[in-house]
Amino acid sequence: MNAAFDLLTQGHAVAQAAAMLTEEFGLSQRQAYRYLQEAQAIKRPVPVSAPSVAVTVKVPEDIATKLRVHAHATGSTIGDVVSRAVSALLARERRRG
User: Fold this and answer.
1) Which residues make Cβ contacts (< 8 Å) with residue 5, sequence separation at least 6?
2) Whole-angstrom Cα distance, residue 37 to residue 27?
3) Residue 91 — φ and ψ, nearest 5°?
């Protein structure tokens, strides 16, 4: 998506940008055009997050239930909720020294 956005902001025509995406990333023409269409609808590149890895933890059942309910209610995933919570905890701990 970001590559498509960059090509469009550099002034490449959609057909030319599609050909470049197909060549560089091995996309089908159809997929390249989909990315270009999505890229036309955004105002800036989308943030790229670090790759995720699986981590298994054991928590009490009531906590797991509350976590599932919260994730569902906020339209998020359990992984996102846990990531934000752990990040906030670690940031607090760093501030404490």
Assistant:
1) 39, 42, 44, 45, 46
2) 14
3) -65, -40
Distance between CA atoms of 47 and 37, rounded to whole angstroms? 18
Residue type, 13: A
Hey, what are 43's tokens?
């105002």
Burial class (CB in 10 A: 0-12, 13-18, 19+), 72: exposed
pTM of the complete model: 0.55
Q: Phi/psi at 61 (nearest 5 deg)?
A: -60, -40
pLDDT digits (tens, 9 = 90+) for 52-83: 899 999 999 999 999 999 999 999 999 999 99
